[in-house]
């Protein structure tokens, strides 16, 4: 199916105020600053209603694709695709490797909603805004959330191209939003077990570890990586934690998957530096493995839970 055309003048007015220009906090307020404020229940409802009118069914599973991992959307059939800048109050995707589409359709027999690209706080958006689509996807009916990301490997035994189930996180990001949501069990233990079984069954090697979520946009210093390693971090990135916090707050069952795209620097005499181009290159190289894992996991969800 083709991309839906905006047919609601109220929403056209809203979205016409949404600029695609990247926010530069140094030069002043983004013209779309209204979207950066707190998202009320009514606002989430308004966005959900806009989408609900145009989709074929209520999604069961929500998926967020990390850097270079948006190819998963190619596996979705009966697609209805909304560029982010056509959805009321959605910000724009500004990071290479994040295509910026919200895609509804069928993945391995389940109706899903897939974010082909995410929002990062370093793009100038508040964490609450970056995580806002999680609330929209929940309101549309999804019960499970799969977050994927590219991340740097901190654990000495983990290598470039490894896939890692996120069993927990260290959150070094700030946040504004509902207060004191518990996140001790944010990552669903049953889903972790299920994903491990899926990986074994389909011959994928899977690591497990703790994701450290930092604000970015710079990669880490050597001192920071050494500190994160002491704290128990196995991987590091600039996303996930805000989505998982909000996902836990609104009752999602959550699975997190990281693709390790680079080894983090731990020695001052190391020759290489991390590069986003390299992150995307490795993500795209290994994306097929990640896609197969998710496809099979979703199939198991369908058999067991839906
Ligand atoms: O977490 P995703 O969106 O996959 O992106 C990761 O890749 C970028 C750095 O190369 C950062 O945005 C980091 O968070
Ligand atoms: N912060 C951070 N994010 C990443 N995303 C992919 N690799 C990295 C990394 O090394 N550090």
From TrEMBL:
InterPro entries documented for this protein: Nucleoside_phosphorylase_d, Nucleoside_phosphorylase_sf, Purine_phosphorylase
Residue ranges of coiled coil: none
Keyword Zinc in annotation: no
Binding site for phosphate: 67, 98, 118-120, 150, 220, 239
Domain Nucleoside phosphorylase positions: 61-298
Binding site for a purine D-ribonucleoside: 262
Enzyme nomenclature, EC number: 2.4.2.1
SUPFAM superfamilies tied to this protein: Purine and uridine phosphorylases (SSF53167)
Pathway the protein acts in: Purine metabolism; purine nucleoside salvage
Pfam families found in the cross-reference section: PNP_UDP_1
Alphabetically ordered keywords of this record: Glycosyltransferase, Transferase
One GO process term, biological-process aspect: nucleoside metabolic process
Catalysis performed (reactions): 2'-deoxyguanosine + phosphate = 2-deoxy-alpha-D-ribose 1-phosphate + guanine; inosine + phosphate = alpha-D-ribose 1-phosphate + hypoxanthine; 2'-deoxyinosine + phosphate = 2-deoxy-alpha-D-ribose 1-phosphate + hypoxanthine; guanosine + phosphate = alpha-D-ribose 1-phosphate + guanine
EC category: transferase
GO annotation, cellular component aspect: cytoplasm
GO molecular function: purine-nucleoside phosphorylase activity
Family from the record: Belongs to the PNP/MTAP phosphorylase family.
Function: The purine nucleoside phosphorylases catalyze the phosphorolytic breakdown of the N-glycosidic bond in the beta-(deoxy)ribonucleoside molecules, with the formation of the corresponding free purine bases and pentose-1-phosphate.
Protein name per UniProt: Purine nucleoside phosphorylase
Organism of origin: Didymodactylos carnosus
